[in-house]
Design brief:
The protein is 49% helix and 10% strand. The protein is built from four helices and two strands. The model has no long low-confidence stretch (mean pLDDT 90).
């Protein structure tokens, strides 16, 4: 998972840094560091990616058009408010 994919996934799910940190059982600064492009331990990145996947995100690998994310078919955005 690339930094941009994490940012895109959070936006798609309408999650804040705190919410994702809680879901992945990491600190908010860890999410911030990942999204800033800092290198983290592979198991930490995996924990964050698994949390996002459990919430309905699919990660799209580099396929000539750049990396990306999408919501699994049938997933609905978390409506706030």
């Amino acid at each position: 998972m690339k930094a941009a994919q994490c940012r895109m996934a959070r936006a798609a799910l309408q999650l804040g840094v705190r919410e994702l940190a809680e879901m992945a059982k990491v600190s908010t600064s860890t999410i911030t560091r990942l999204e800033a492009g800092e290198e983290l331990k592979p198991r930490t990145v995996e924990a964050i990616q698994h949390a996002l996947e459990a919430a309905g995100v699919e990660f799209i690998p580099e396929n000539g058009g750049g990396v990306g994310v999408r919501l699994r078919k049938g997933e609905k955005l978390n409506e706030k408010g």
